Amino acid sequence: MDLQLTNKVGIVTGASRGIGRAIAQTLSDEGMRLALVARSRDQLEELSVALRHESLALAAGLREPDAPAAVIAATMERFGRLDLLVNNAGATRRGDFFSLTDEDWADGFALKFYGAMRCSRAAWPYLQASQGCIVNIAGIGGRTASSDFTIGGAVNSALLNFTKALADRGVIDGVRVNAINPGSIVTERLQHRLRSLASERGIDETEAALAMTRASRVARFGSPDEIARAVAFLASPQADYCQGALLDIDGGQTRSL
After folding, report:
1. What is the secondary structure of 143-188 as a DSSP string?
2. Where are the domains of the chain?
3. Minimal CA–CA distance to 29: which of 3, 11, 67?
4. Does domain 9-185+223-248 have CATH number 3.40.50.720?
5. pLDDT per position as a tens digit, 20-42
6. What is the DSSP letter of 236?
7. What pLDDT, in 10s, does the model give residues 76-131?
8. What's the pTM?
9. Rounded distance between C-alpha atoms, residue 10 and residue 28, angstroms
């Protein structure tokens, strides 16, 4: 299927590794030119060299209030247009609620929510001009609460509500806004959780992975490429009637409506 993304321009935040890296690779394979955003310049430049089409490595800390606007400005200066913003950056600290500090909560919202909000605000006029779109990468914790994921769940819930609100405005302005909720995806973050579980239970990582999938009642973990392909679809004209959609890609882990 031709997704008709050739020569379009996108921004991918959190692009240096994991899901963000897979998104960048998939969009580049589809012909897009990309601005790659993360804190690690070395990883971004290595990725940029490996991509099939033109890309710009932008090392930026999106927790800083002025950074999102600077990223959008640099992208427009380089490419002259913007068709897609993928808000993927942001990790939140897990743990017992009573062990999490105010600083942990502030940091959780600073990047994943406020970074996405500021990027969206700065990008909106250019997306409106191109009739482009935004894809927010949230997470299933925003729909199903967990006692050890209070920060992440709250941030993801806020991002999902934000997606719906921007989609409502997007109907007027011609900007499509959708979100993806990944489940347990094989990234460095998941590997860290598996190592912690294995150490806690005195088992190896293979047994820990089996225990985690059984507890989630899923057949397997997902791959970053599976999230990336969904982003490419939502970015394409093939998804033109998707507005405010919240797409769970979690192997069936989310069982609520």
Report:
1. TS--TT-HHHHHHHHHHHHHHHHHHHHHHHHT-EEEEEEE-SB-SH
2. 9-185+223-248, 188-221
3. 3
4. yes
5. 999 999 999 999 999 999 999 99
6. S
7. 999 999 999 999 999 899 999 999 999 999 999 999 999 999 999 999 999 999 99
8. 0.95
9. 9
